[in-house]
Amino acid sequence: MLHPRNRQISNLVVAEVSDMAYTISAPPHKKERITFSSMNWSKIVALVPVSLIAIYFFGIPALEIILAAVIAAVLTEYGIQMIFKQNVTVKDGHAAMIGLMFALLTPPEAPIWLPVVGGFFAIAIGKHAFGGIGSYIFNPVLVSWVFVRSAWSGFMTPASIPHIGPVSDILLESGAGLLVGVSPIALIGGVYLIYKRYVEWRVPLTFFLTVFFFNQAIAFVTEIVQLVQEGVLNPLLYLATMFTFLELTEELSYAMIGVVIFGILFLSTDSPTTPITKAGRLIYGVGCGVLVSIYGYFGNYVDGTLYGIFLANGIASFLESRTIPGSFGQESLLERSYKRVVARLPPGLRSEVVSDD
Amino acid sequence: MESKRLKKIPQKVIIPLKQHLGTICEPLVKKGDQVLIGQKIGRSVSYYSSDVHSSVCGEVLAIENAPHPNGNKVLSVIIQTTESMETVDFVPTENTSQEKLISLMQEAGIVEHYGAPTHTVLMPEDKKIDIVLINSTASEWIGGKYKTPKEYASQMMDALKLLMKAAGASKGAIIVRKDDKESIEAFEDVEVNGKALKVAPLVGKRRLGYYFRDQDSNIIVASQKRIYGKKILNFFTYNVTGRKVGIGCDPTDVGVAVCSIKSAKALYDAVYEGRPYYETVITVEGTVDCPEYMLIRIGTPFKDIIESCNSEGEVAKIVANGVITGVAQYTDEVPVTKGTTRITLLTKEEVLRDESLACIHCARCVDICPVSLVPSRLTVLADQGRFDECRQMHIENCIECGRCAVVCPSKIHVLQLIRYAKNAIEGAYADAAPKESSNLKLGCCGGE
Question: Which positions does UniProt annotate for [4Fe-4S] cluster 2 binding (chain B) (predicted)?
Answer without folding.
Answer: 369, 398, 401, 404
